[in-house]
Amino acid sequence: MSKEQPDLASRGASTSEATAGAAEPLRGVGVSPGLAVGPVARLAPPAGEPAAATLAPDVDAEAEAGRVAAAAQEVAAALSASAQAVEGERRELLETTAAMATDPTLVKSAQKKVREGRTVPDRAVWEAAGEVAEQLRGLGGYMAERARDVLDVRDRIIAELTGSPMPGVPQREEPFVLVARDLAPADTALLDPAHVRAIVTAEGGPTSHTAILARALGIPAVVGAPGAPDLAEDRVVLVDGGAGTVTLDPDEAAVQRAERHPTAARTFTGPGRTADGHPVQLLANVGDPAGAQAAAAAGAEGVGLFRTEFCFLDRAEEPGVEEQVAAYRQVLAAFPGRKVVVRTLDAGADKPLPFVTAAEEANPALGVRGLRTARRAPEVLEHQLEAIAAAAQAEQAEVWVMAPMVATVAEAEDFVAACARHGLETAGVMVEVPSAALLAGPILARAHFASIGTNDLTQYAMAADRLLGSLADLSDTWQPAVLRLVEATCRGGDQQDRPVGVCGEAAADPALAVVLAGLGVSSLSMTPRALGDVAAVLAATDLARCQELARAAVDAESAQDARAVVRAGLPVLEELGL
């Protein structure tokens, strides 16, 4: 036991808020497994809404407008500098936020308010950012999510203008549990696992930036916990990122249990299999060439989801075939002789692209997205398949191709035929909408495999926007209705002797991985960091036990009950600190 442990336990027991009986734990959605204990440190708050005020008559409005631009540049420069210290999605998030800080729409609108209305700079930034954020929310989908970035840079620019403390993750010598109502993307990208032991937020869901980056960094996290804002600074809590609980003032035994299981990444050398040798292929989700290198280094047996959007985003026109070939080859080259499942362009909804999606849709999540974009721009899909085929020919990876957002048998049949025209022999579908799960048998009579995207399948099954933190309890793959759709898909795969994998965030949950294997899923694709944890739990559980626990989860009446019954039946989770 470390020297710090008794101190933590004594602090938990002696706090003035402790009661004679154990306090009821806070409950939320566990999105990154692991145990961690530490004092609460709250996210540094922004300065808040500035007073509505105008410049004094003797103040130069032009000079004050110049201060707005200068402050925005300072914020952007600081974020860009931070981006250079991290990699992958963390860098991308920081670079996106930095670009938002100097966005002409925001800066020029604020300057106009200073020049023409003689509004003081901090108030002008507040008003201009509010207008931009409202416009983005009205667009829905991906653009609505960007509204959070606007409000984040607003607060940073105002802090720069007023000399107030910069909002964000606190700087403390002692490791802590970070508590917030929600985290901006830039905040999550700046998280340091050496200092942040765990994360607890009142908002956010399983597919939020907070959840995804917490998993990638191995930081235990619970989101959607309504009582989080009420946790007092320095109160000691124990976070169970698998169970989704936050224990207040844990006793010494609980502290020792958490400290016995640090969240260091477990190594994975493959192959993935259950205790009795049943194979469950463990693959990685990859979004760019750098991600492919990281996945290969982590021991992934292959790639279960290669997101190709990195070639297309932030462009007015589709990239050329040769450019795509070069990009795809970098990913395929990292996995010679191993499977790489390439997903064709998943544009629309949260990833609008002007050359394949409409400028405005009343409900983008239910609009022209994924494979449906081929209705509007069939040549984009044809060019991409041509590029994938050329890259496959040039490299030694075993290339499979799948289409996102397939909803009908006819769509599956047409996509398989399109792949065949380009010499791509292993063509599959993503199961992301309930219709595809319910029609899995006839769909897989045409397609060679299916891969379940649990993020969208949950969203559509539960009619709950996965970006809306207030619905985090519904946006949970543990929902029995969602598990029944997974079961239906696997049943269709069995009928046609076709493999069914999972490539959604659910695959990274070690307890849920057992359930998925028990339902008949043959491969799980996840963030590389989760490979070791998932492999360890599967290796300690035989297939019959996986099937028993899967049945119990499917027959449960709520996500909370399903999670609880499975976790109670997996003592290995406690042994591993998961």
Radius of gyration: 24 Å
Number of contiguous helices? 23
Shape: globular
Report the biggest beta sheet as strand number plus sense, adding barrel if it closes.
8 strands, mixed
Strand count: 16
Helix content: 40-55%
Terminal CA distance reads 19 Å
What's the CATH H-level superfamily name of the largest domain?
Answer: Phosphoenolpyruvate-binding domains
Q: What proportion strand? A: 5-15%
What is the fold-level CATH name, i.e. the topology of the largest domain? TIM Barrel
User: Which class of the largest domain in CATH terms?
Assistant: Alpha Beta
CATH architecture of the largest domain: Alpha-Beta Barrel
Q: Classify the secondary structure makeup into a structural class.
A: alpha/beta
Which residues sit in consecutive blocks of at least 5 with pLDDT less than 50?
Answer: 1-21
Number of domains: 3
Which strand order spans the largest sheet, edge to edge or round the barrel? 1-8-7-3-4-5-6-2
Mean pLDDT: 86
Can you give me a brief rundown of this structure?
This protein is α/β, with parallel strands linked by helices and 578 residues long. The protein is built from 23 helices and 16 strands.
Structure description:
Residues 270-540 form the PEP-utilising enzyme C-terminal domain. Mg(2+) binds at residues 432, 456. This is Phosphoenolpyruvate-protein phosphotransferase. InterPro entries: PEP-util_enz_mobile_dom (IPR008279), PEP-utilizing_PTS_enzyme (IPR050499), PEP_util_AS (IPR018274), PEP_util_C (IPR000121), Phosphohistidine_dom_sf (IPR036637), PTS_EI (IPR024692), PTS_EI-like (IPR006318), PTS_EIN (IPR008731). Residues 27-146 form the Phosphotransferase system enzyme I N-terminal domain. With 578 residues, the chain is an alpha/beta fold. The protein has three domains: 26-43 and 168-260, 3-Layer(bba) Sandwich (Glucose Oxidase, domain 1); 61-162, Enzyme I, Chain A, domain 2 (Orthogonal Bundle), CATH 1.10.274.10; 281-551, TIM Barrel (Alpha-Beta Barrel), CATH 3.20.20. Helix content is 46%, strand content 13%. The protein is built from 23 helices and 16 strands. The protein has helices spanning 4-14, 61-83, 88-101, 104-117, 121-139, 141-162, 185-189, 209-217, 252-259, 289-297, 321-332, 373-376, 378-394, 409-421, 434-438, 440-444, 454-462, 480-496, 510-519, 531-539, 543-555, 559-568, 572-576, and strands at 26-27, 29-32, 35-42, 176-180, 196-201, 221-223, 236-240, 245-248, 281-286, 303-307, 339-343, 398-403, 427-431, 450-452, 500-502, 523-526. The strands form two sheets. The chain has an eight-stranded mixed beta sheet. Strands 9-10-11-12-13-14-15-16 form an eight-stranded parallel barrel, surrounded by five helices. Helix 5 runs antiparallel to helix 6, helix 10 (289-297) packs parallel to helix 11 (321-332) and helix 19 packs across helix 21. The radius of gyration is 24 Å and the shape is globular. The model is unreliable at 1-21 (pLDDT under 50).
